């Protein structure tokens, strides 16, 4: 045994999930022909289901010399990734290239048809994702609406109908079929009526969130929260099993309907990205191209998150840009086009489903008829500043609450917390019109021009009571901010998009009303000279619209996506420039406090292994300062290890993989083998009955006798592990600067890099160690 | 002399542009203190203006051993890139990181202020780019308008006024100040009038394009054509000097006004990207951060191209997406935000300038009042198919014409060709209303609903003469296609955006009118059941709009950008989904014929060294198959070369750089030095009077005496070239697959990669050789 037995590396140590590995047994006595074929196919980088592992006698080894040199360039076969590990983008791309190469080489008719199918797979997949996500979004929208309405009463013609459908065809507020709870319980006393309605309102809300919280805790803990930070981490190349599974999907959909319907200060829009990604992940299982390739899967997930935003806001282009700007890590042009298609299909599906029977996908349709004036620009910039400040403030406060929730006694009582938050929210909201209506209704009313509002909404347009309106808006604003800070992060599915829009719209409307007052009281001021005296000059609805964009920009720090989403939300393009200005200012102001968006802050807090490509690091360190030195690595010699030795190493050390060297004295690097692959091979061998644990393994091109092992007279058996080796791992020299290596990790998507000096192994640096080092840099 | 003297590499061999290098002389007798300081600062990767090169005696070398180990990790100092070479992204990023690192370390007040300025530099730059591009776009628009109008007549109240401004304030077509040429020449005979007007129309057009072509040929040949393929190549990391210079900018602006004003079938929108990039390049010279760093410069150019499209169409978001989807090679988030700001500033400037006095940036304002019906979707898809086919056809035909122009006798007569094309175009256009009006007017009229049209445009809305209208549209379509095919590529500034939109709009309007006819003649068909009988069901203007998107998509193969540009062009968001469907279909159909967009096709034709990140290659080859083998490389030994030797090597071999090895027997790789750097150093030394050509140079950490050279008793002098070496070049082993290396080139932006086996140099692969190999793959 030449193996070094030290340990420093601290990777996750879950054992390989063997259920995902084809469990085909292999014969001890393969015919030579099969052997050669299997070898010849071994550079496809995929797991062929037979002849994965083979043991053969010395006489067969000589034939191996005939293997074309080319086969030494394989990146090694690979089995599925373990949970909580980072993926190796580069290997997966290589695997996919090999697969396509193989498909391309099939010249038969069947092969050609398969080639066409193969080329279409991704398009079919993203269309499927779009359709399913669209259907789910419609379901969530309808059921959340129903729960929201049922809090106030029920429909006599069918309990499953929400107020809108119950009253379909009845003009105005006349609706005989819709019965308030006080009427249902036959209460006539005016005060009691109020009490009963309040009680039912609160009771149903609490019941809904209780169910949501319970279901989440019991069946799918991953479905709580927004999901976007985790999706970002997964798209960045991390494996979190079950996060995108069927259970999570179901619970997310149900929980989302319940928490949004209950009237919590949460949106359903952000979590739809998570829903989309679950759909993406589940649909991908139908297509081999994506199911067996974690990097390709992430391309599909990027498209899925575009579909999520697309159906959330009816904003297909906004969805694509959201996927690009916020969640995706690797976003080549192909993914752009697929996201485009996926978002398109989702929006089309939603439009055809027409869940709101409005015939529109646009959520807050407005039609601003007036153009903006130059004198308004400073006010827009002011809104941008306020939005940026709000974003920074919200992130800071919410992080404090989240930390409290995560690290104090509170963490033991998630359901109780949800209950209390709902109770308080419901009681407060019941008294305020601005808070009682659903947030989309609130925003939609705040965006509108007074001339467009059907009935006066909370006195927004009554000039006579302008002071009290402003006061009410201010109170609603403060309450909304507090509720949002405490609500975002509780253990039910909950998004932050719409609450941010609501806060911003409230701010904007207040500013807009004040501006309008000023202009109307001093119409002769020189700054208002561009106003046409016959027409209303200042439109408070526009300020609400721009304020909403500013707040969303401040919280999420997106620019292009925020702008486009705002347009698609309202269907109005006349305010492109003001919105762009505001969003840019809001981002700058927010970034001046902290560069992290709410999602990045959550990623940091949860210490997800996410390599943020937006962040710059400054360091003079070189790789040899932070790498795991060769003395602390477990290295495998190319020849000389028995199956038992490998079994022992695997059981003793949790490392994700092992460098292979010619021998433990020279330590000339030969390749790298992943833990999962080694585990899989050894498991297969050990499944064979009566296997001899002293069978020697070899990882090298040279036949074992070159090393003086294996007496040609004895039919000694060897285990050939070469197909599982990555014989061209990325290597660097120890004097590379860390920041230069960081670029490699970011751009190539490495999982680890091997450090050699003149061919000799001197160390290894993996992504997690690099991230750990970078986090120390950041705290400095 | 141990130097290998073979040659295979065939890089461009222009000598270094020494004008861009600070020509500071250095003393032969530096004080030791200065020496050490200069050494200590040597890892900044930039050219410090003093003590760049130094020769010192042996006694000083010992002190060098005290140099911290860290300094061996520099990527080497670098001087400016030579013309027609590819840039080394990675080195430039490292250089920038070092620069920022240095700035961050300055703790004085001045340092802090500089830090803030440094952080703002890029924002200031992109704002500046936006403003200047906006101003230039306004200038081009106004002057093209004027030339276009002057063809038909002149303004009596001022020859510099175009028709619109001349007639400002006059209602309808009443305009006493505007005088037709026939009136100017006092001609009364009806037939002669027509002849004179036609003559003047043709004469002024030909004169304008003649001037344009002459100016282009004489002063700035690079200003011809669209410029987008070259901009793409430059952004992909290639150096084409003067392509973005002041002369090119001026000639492009003047030529563009002339060629567009002359009524050629060209647009000014695409070339505005080139204008934007020229502005970007020139403005960057004001900021050291960008001026000295080719990779950072490209980030600014990405933002500039966004500003270009933004001001071209009044489409700021479309501009950002165009930059992302079509022209940019490296587009990190930072660039996205900067492009956003640049596009925003450009559009704001244009709006404030208000060159058309319409108060809008929207070019073809439409307000479609009706929603689309499901039965229209197949027709939209059909339009997508037609658009895709047109795109493929146009690219194929235009390439044939371009090839003819480039490789036949025609290439000797560019000005004559322009003249002939203009002559034919003018004569044909004069007779047809659809072709005679400017293309933007044509498109704008085709997009409009009949109810919106001020006066009936060419009988578009006359139900009585529908057949002749369709016939006229068809003829206009055919002529437009032919003219565009022959025009795009002539030696005047010319874009392809607007001609594509015009062709598409013509196709769409024809289909729309036919569709409307069908629906109106069979209103009871089941497919039309969703139509409201009281309202017009089919809007031909919408079909024109969608057809235009399809044709633009077919020619440029953009999806998201096309969609967004179309919305921003028209200010109408109600048709998001149909446009998305159409654009996607158009792209698919076009791609089915050839994956190349018009710009990619031009890049291929001109054999620009552009590594298309969208294209996939399949190859089993490994690096050792295509690399330049060590025997064919000029390698420099770390010690033993005299200044005269290096001078000889530089004069004899045109290679872009030289690997440095410990000695020419072992060939252990020590680093890499670029040609320009070596040239610069040697030039500096040779400027020193009485320099001894036999002075030894060394590239290694070890002092020369370790190699047995340099007698300590003699005060022998050495030239230290270490600061100029990249001591951590990217290295790979020879068994890497080419496709894996390709990823490195694409993602890291390498210029070359060095191939080593166990520390020993075995070869080198540079970007151009790789591109050459890839082009053979493609033709297979």
TrEMBL record, chains A, B:
Q: Name one GO cellular component term.
A: Golgi apparatus
Region of interest (Disordered), residue spans: 14-48
* A GO MF term: voltage-gated chloride channel activity
Q: Which domain of life is it from?
A: Eukaryota
Q: Where is the composition biased (Polar residues)?
A: 14-36
One Pfam family cited in the UniProt record for this chain: Voltage_CLC
Q: Where in the cell is it found?
A: Membrane
Show where the CBS domain sits.
Answer: 627-688, 725-780
Would you identify the family this protein belongs to, as annotated?
Belongs to the chloride channel (TC 2.A.49) family.
What is the recorded name of this protein? Chloride channel protein
> What's the source species for this entry?
Anaeromyces robustus
């Amino acid at each position: 045994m030449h193996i070094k037995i030290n340990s420093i590396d601290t990777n996750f140590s879950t054992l390989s999930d063997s259920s995902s590995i084809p469990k085909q047994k292999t014969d001890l006595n393969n015919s030579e022909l099969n052997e050669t074929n299997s070898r010849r196919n071994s550079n496809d980088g995929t797991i062929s289901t037979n002849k994965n592992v083979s043991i053969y006698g010395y006489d067969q080894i000589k034939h191996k010399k005939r293997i074309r040199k080319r086969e030494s360039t394989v990146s090694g076969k690979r089995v599925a990734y373990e949970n909580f590990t980072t993926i190796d983008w580069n290997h997966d791309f290589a695997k996919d290239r090999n697969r396509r190469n193989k498909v391309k080489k099939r010249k038969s008719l069947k092969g050609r048809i398969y080639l066409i199918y193969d080329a279409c797979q991704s398009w079919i997949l993203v269309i499927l994702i779009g359709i399913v996500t669209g259907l789910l979004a419609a379901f969530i929208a309808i059921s959340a609406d129903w729960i929201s309405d049922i809090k106030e009463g029920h429909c006599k013609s069918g309990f499953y109908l929400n107020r809108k459908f119950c009253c379909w065809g009845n003009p105005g507020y006349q609706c005989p079929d819709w019965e308030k709870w006080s009427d249902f319980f036959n209460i006539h006393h005016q005060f009691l009526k109020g009490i009963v309605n309040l009680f039912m309102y609160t009771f149903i809300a609490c019941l809904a969130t209780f169910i949501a919280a319970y279901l989440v805790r019991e069946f799918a803990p991953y479905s709580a929260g927004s999901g976007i930070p985790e999706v970002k981490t997964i798209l960045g190349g991390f494996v979190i099993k079950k996060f995108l599974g069927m259970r999570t999907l179901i619970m997310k959909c149900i929980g989302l309907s319940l928490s949004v319907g209950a009237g919590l200060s949460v949106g359903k829009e952000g979590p739809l990205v998570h829903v989309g990604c679950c759909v993406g992940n589940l649909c991908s299982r139908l297509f081999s191209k994506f199911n067996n390739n974690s990097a390709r899967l992430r391309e599909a997930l990027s498209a899925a998150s575009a579909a999520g935003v697309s159906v959330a806001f009816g904003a297909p282009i906004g969805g694509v840009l959201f996927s690009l700007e916020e969640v995706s890590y690797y976003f080549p042009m192909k993914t752009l086009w697929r996201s485009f298609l996926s978002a398109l299909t989702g929006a089309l599906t939603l439009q055809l489903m027409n869940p709101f029977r409005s015939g529109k996908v646009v959520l807050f349709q407005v039609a601003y008829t007036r153009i903006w004036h130059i004198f308004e620009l400073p006010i827009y910039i002011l809104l941008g500043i306020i939005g940026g400040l709000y974003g920074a403030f919200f992130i800071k406060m919410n992080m404090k609450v989240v930390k409290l929730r995560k690290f104090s006694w509170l963490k033991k009582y998630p359901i109780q917390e949800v209950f209390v938050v709902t109770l308080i929210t419901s009681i407060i909201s019941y008294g305020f019109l601005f808070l009682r209506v659903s947030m989309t209704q609130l925003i939609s009313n705040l965006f509108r021009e007074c001339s467009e509002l059907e009935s006066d909404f909370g006195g927004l347009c009554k000039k006579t009571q302008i002071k009290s309106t402003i006061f009410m808006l201010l109170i609603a604003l403060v309450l909304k901010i507090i509720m949002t800070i405490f609500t975002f992060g509780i253990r039910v599915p909950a998004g932050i998009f719409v609450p941010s829009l609501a806060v911003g719209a409230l701010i904007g409307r207040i500013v807009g009303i004040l501006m309008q007052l000023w202009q109307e009281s001093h119409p002769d001021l020189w700054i208002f000279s561009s106003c046409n005296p016959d027409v209303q000059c200042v439109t408070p609805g526009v300020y609400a619209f721009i304020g909403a964009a500013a707040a969303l920009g401040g919280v999420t720090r997106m620019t292009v996506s925020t702008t486009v989403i705002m347009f698609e939300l309202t269907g109005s393009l006349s305010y492109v420039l003001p919105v762009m200005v505001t969003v840019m200012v809001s981002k700058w102001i927010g970034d001046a406090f902290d560069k992290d968006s709410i999602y990045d802050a959550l990623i940091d807090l949860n210490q997800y292994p996410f390599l943020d490509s937006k962040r710059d690091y400054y360091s003079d360190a070189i790789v040899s300062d932070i790498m795991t030195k060769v003395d602390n690595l477990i290295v495998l010699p190319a020849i000389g290890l028995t199956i038992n030795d490998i079994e022992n190493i695997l059981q003793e050390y949790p490392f994700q993989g092992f460098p292979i060297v010619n021998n433990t004295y020279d330590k000339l690097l030969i390749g790298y083998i992943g833990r999962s692959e080694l585990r899989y091979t050894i498991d297969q061998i050990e499944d064979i009955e009566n296997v001899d644990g002293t069978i020697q393994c070899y990882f090298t091109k040279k036949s074992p006798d070159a090393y003086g092992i294996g007496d040609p007279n004895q039919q000694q058996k060897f285990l050939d592990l070469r197909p599982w080796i990555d014989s061209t791992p990325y290597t660097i020299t120890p004097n590379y600067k860390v920041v230069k290596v960081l670029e490699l990790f970011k751009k190539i998507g490495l999982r680890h890099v091997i450090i050699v000096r003149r061919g000799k192994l001197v160390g290894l640096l993996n992504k997690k160690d690099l991230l750990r080092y970078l986090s120390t840099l950041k705290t400095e």
